[in-house]
Amino acid sequence: MGVPRGLLRFLVLEMLSRRPMAGAEIAEEIEIQTKGHWKPSPGSIYPLMAWLLGKGFTKELPKNPYGFKRYGFTPAGHKYYQNQLRLSQNFVGKIEFLIPMLIGGLQLEPYQEKLSKIREHARKLLQEFITLIRNPEILSAFDVTEMTEALRECSEKLGKIAQKAEPAKHHMHKNR
Which pTM was predicted? Predict the structure, then answer.
């Protein structure tokens, strides 16, 4: 599976908006956040870092303790990031209608009826989640705590059920 075009640039901008980082730190952070499914190569990170530097969006900072060059935003970089953030929010707004189809699949598999109730709740959960994260100003600290706890409980329960699928998945790949 390929990574969507422009995702790496957006992730780099998002990470640099939080703190100055080296390219290697960014690659490691992406690997951690994707649970090892994706670690951008130096061949994709460093040309992007050079592009951001060349455009004046970042500046080189003193090396970190490991000897890596670190990059931080310039005022132009902050402005560019805010613009990219607006564009991504507009993009999400434009594709929200796809959520039911993405979660529901194309309904071609033999277990369609068995999973129909699950899909409806998953669609509703994702739609509500997107509504909330697109309107963070309405969330109180209590709301955020409640959301965090609800999602933690849900992910733990689903994780326990999903563990049953792991041996079957491993067995299927082994027999190919």
Answer: 0.60
